[in-house]
Design goal:
The chain is mainly alpha-helical and 161 residues long. It is built from five helices and no strands.
């Protein structure tokens, strides 16, 4: 099996786990949400989680399509026309991956019950939103970062003279 296919299988497994996490966050927002304080903001957070579920399903579909037919979006984003790594895009995806995992972990700590300085004044729904978005965007940025290192250049056809 090609290394790229292993990456796409890992992405699909991660996206399934993130889909379940987003469903859990929706349940938490419905069950433990305080609808008396700020109904409008809470509804927007729940709507975002529904949109996030749809986005996760679309990204799962794109990962599955890349597994079956080959990666086209990642090739266009991370490799030049000669299939060489683009350094500026590698650095950008690495920085974004670190940033998004930091946001996700920070929000996860708040959701799990710790009082975090910036999030303790906001609603729990927003912490769930930041947690889900952080993990999904981390998965995408980390996959984009890893892809050029495991990409195998296609073999050129032999030229018969």
């Amino acid at each position: 099996m090609k290394k790229e296919n292993v990456l796409f299988i890992a992405m699909m497994v991660g996206e399934i786990m993130l889909f379940l996490l987003c469903g859990f966050s929706l349940i938490q927002c419905f069950v433990f949400g305080n609808f008396d304080e700020d109904l409008g903001g809470h509804i927007i957070e729940i709507i975002y989680l529904f949109i996030h579920l749809i986005a996760t399903a679309i990204i799962f579909y794109l990962s599955f399509k890349a597994f079956k037919q080959g990666p086209s979006i990642m090739n266009n984003l991370m490799l030049d026309e000669d299939n060489n790594k683009i350094t500026s895009k590698l650095i950008t995806s690495g920085i974004l991956a670190v940033l998004f995992i930091a946001v996700a972990i920070y929000s996860t700590l708040h959701v799990s019950g710790l009082n975090m300085p910036l999030l303790d004044k906001l609603s729990i729904g927003l912490a769930h939103d930041l947690m889900n978005a952080g993990y999904l965007l981390f998965l995408i940025a980390a996959s984009l970062f890893v892809y050029p290192f495991i990409f195998t250049k296609p073999k050129e056809p032999r030229k018969y003279e």
